[in-house]
Amino acid sequence: MENVTKKKVVVIGAGIAGLSAGIYALKAGYDVEIYEKNKIPGGECMGWNRKGYHIDNCIHWLTGTDPKTKLWEVWKTVGAIDENTQYADVDKFYSSRVEGKEATLWNDLERTQKELIELSPEDEEEITKFIRHVEYAKECVIPSDKPLDMMGMRDYIKMGMEMPDMPKVMKEYGKINCGDLAKRFKSPALRKLMSDYLPAEYTAYSFLVSYATMASGNGNIPLEGSLAMSLRIVKRFKEMGGILHNGVSVKRIVVDGKKATGIELEDGTVISADEVISAVDTDFLFGRLIEKKYMPKLLMKAYENRKAYPVTSGFQFAFAIDSDFSATDTIFFDCEPLQIGTRSFSRMSVKSYAYDKSFAPEGKTVLQANIVQSDEDYLYWESLSEDEYRKKKEESSEEVTKRIVREFPELEGKIELLDCWTPLTYNRYCNSYHGSYMGFVTTVGNKQMRFKGVVKGISNLYVAGQWVMSPGGLPIAVVSGKFAVQRILKKEKRSIEI
Ligand SMILES: Cc1cc2nc3c(=O)[nH]c(=O)nc-3n(C[C@H](O)[C@H](O)[C@H](O)COP(=O)(O)OP(=O)(O)OC[C@H]3O[C@@H](n4cnc5c(N)ncnc54)[C@H](O)[C@@H]3O)c2cc1C
Question: Which of 252, 280, 316, 478 for mutating ligand 1's site (highest number of atoms within 8 Å of CB)?
């Protein structure tokens, strides 16, 4: 055990990244305080109750549930999951319905291949190639030991050996987007299947990796949902001696010369710190908590170029279903066009949460619907007055309900709206840029967003959170917290093995 004088690390934000940073900083022997603006920690890994139902609003898949992976160890360290965690019994990624035909991406790749070929024999060659590459993509791992820039030649060789077939996936699907991938298929149902889940501009390989994560058993859904997982991490943090201040918003980081001396809270209180880790949205950090001039160049370029680095959010609805509506899981379908701002949507999805009995009273189910939202949609929502905003939500809820009942007539008289929320909700709740709940989308021909979680010009300020590396999501959030602490350790010339 190294002899450490206790330094104080202050973390801003108690999302998954901030909580992870807090736990790893405690492990490294520091005193840690986290300041979180919301009363409930967890950030975007959240859920809430309505009328006796629980609306789970994050985990569709948790990368790192395979105990053989290094990422699993990180999740275990922060108390999110362990050997006894129970997972949802879900056997498919999702289905797409077109003109009465339904295509499904099962976790069982052989079954998927067989069914898709039966559905569209003329696409056999493309289907076989797709499935083969999803199989290869199962190898894809998220570096969880240490940040990429701290890796040596030996680490890179080892990582390459763990993923020998990934270059084939990148070669075949790294230079096209999901829209292009869809066009490779002749069947309308398969075209939709390939482009329903991720927006068309996403690189196709991201889609293959997502499906492979589910298919490999490394992307399970922990029972009891997202908020329960966040609260398990909070429990671990507190048990280790960490102090969490909920409902306390940070106004700015106090910078003196080239050092952050602490943080100032909204009420003017100043908290001193030896090291500061920001785990809030980077758009909020650079511009609100510290001056924008500190923003790394690539990040600046990404914010300025909305076409090359789009973000996504959702216009979402949760319903109480007065039956055990378990047959659907996640399904996409055509609908009568729905106008939202400047865009018209003629496709939507519903997801049944019947897999988790703790979310609804017995014999009932929570169903959620999502209309994927873009930067442009965010600006539309932002332009509305309070009254217009409320009215649009109400009208859309009725319209969406009608469309669901049209597609699933068995729900007539059994469906009741629980809640509805927009990209603005995420911005209000988490200060998230354009309401995005993932990082920047990597589009074809543009550099993947990845920056060292350090701030040039401020020697003791570190950045964690999903924005440090695309595509963001929970795994990037959790490892970025660990990496921020490893950077402090490296600066102090201590071992980064933690
Ligand atoms: C509907 C939905 C589905 C998703 N599905 C998945 C999925 O299936 N798999 C997956 O991997 N990921 C998924 N995600 C993404 C995942 O939730 C996020 O990537 C992750 O939670 C981001 O964590 P973070 O800590 O980086 O940021 P955040 O969760 O945004 O945390 C930042 C925290 O900082 C706080 N904060 C902000 N400003 C201040 C301030 N001034 N003072 C104090 N605190 C502040 C915020 O309140 C927040 O708690 C989903 C997200 C949503 C919303």
Answer: 280
